[in-house]
Amino acid sequence: ETGVTQSPTHLIKTRGQQVTLRCSSQSGHNTVSWYQQALGQGPQFIFQYYREEENGRGNFPPRFSGLQFPNYSSELNVNALELDDSALYLCASSLQPTGNNSPLHFGNGTRLTVT
Amino acid sequence: DAKTTQPPSMDCAEGRAANLPCNHSTISGNEYVYWYRQIHSQGPQYIIHGLKNNETNEMASLIITEDRKSSTLILPHATLRDTAVYYCIAKSGSARQLTFGSGTQLTVLP
Fold first, then answer.
1. Of B43, B96, B98, which is closest to A97 when you measure between CB atoms?
2. Is the Cβ–Cβ distance between B84 and B106 less than 8 Å?
3. Does the structure show a pLDDT above 80 at A85?
4. Is pLDDT above 90 for B69?
5. Does the pLDDT value for residue B19 go beyond 80?
6. How many percent of chain B have pLDDT more than 70?
7. CA distance A97 to A80
């Protein structure tokens, strides 16, 4: 069973630039969620993708967007990067978008630094 | 989802049981209690979850009080590799996301 994989592991961008982060879900999982984790804090929910559509969103501005592909992999795009976007970005997959029979399985994240 | 309260840090001797408490006094009847942990520089790892009955798996045991206002995660024989931040989360079936708090930093001492 292949777990959740994310790429790249580390990334440095300049304020105002755009970035794309990638995630491959665990085998058999059709739902992908993205979280942002600032240093010293718990992860914060950005959004969830299910059936290639956004299926729920946290308190993040529209410059955070995503995609899900037919093979259930996903991308997180952030436009007009700000210094506060520096964080660990975590991808998680699950068997279904809601319910309590499918815990989230997380990747090890992409560390984004905005200078 | 109900707010959970955890101590910011705890220590445990290697080989002893680690008992991590969590208060969730406003939990509703359809909210499960989830535990995740995050080892430094890794993503959160699912440990266990339950509604009202005690649960056990290969990693840990979850004890939920009868009134469901609090719970305890038990790692029966802590090892140095169990050093991590442990998150207790209340989640309903309809919620799409996990709402993480600050968690408990567990340090297992040799």
1. B96
2. yes
3. yes
4. yes
5. yes
6. 100
7. 29
Whole-number Å distance between alpha carbons of B10 and A72: 39
* B 62-81: CB under 8 A from A: none
Distance of CA B73 to the CA centre of its chain: 5
Residue B1 has pLDDT above 80, yes or no: no
pLDDT at A98 exceeding the cut of 90:
no
Distance CA B108, CA B10 (A): 9
Instruction: Give me the percent of chain A exceeding a pLDDT of 90.
Output: 90
- Write b or e for each residue in A67-82: b if 16 or more Cβ atoms lie within 10 A of its Cβ, otherwise e: bbeeebbbbbebeebe
Helix, coil or strand: residue A5:
strand
| pLDDT at res. A1 | 58
- Which chain B residues have a beta carbon less than 8 Å from that of A97? 96
CB atoms B96 and A104 under 8 Å: no
CA end-to-end span of chain A, whole Å? 37
Query: b or e along A12-23 (b: 16 or more beta carbons within 10 Å of the residue's beta carbon)?
Result: ebeeeeebebeb
Q: DSSP strand E in chain A: where? A: 5-7, 10-13, 19-24, 31-37, 44-50, 53-57, 64-68, 74-78, 87-94, 105-106, 110-114
How many C-beta atoms lie closer than 10 Å to residue B17's C-beta? 12
In chain B, pLDDT over 90 holds for what percent of residues? 92
Angle at B78 between CA B21 and CA A89, to 5 degrees: 70
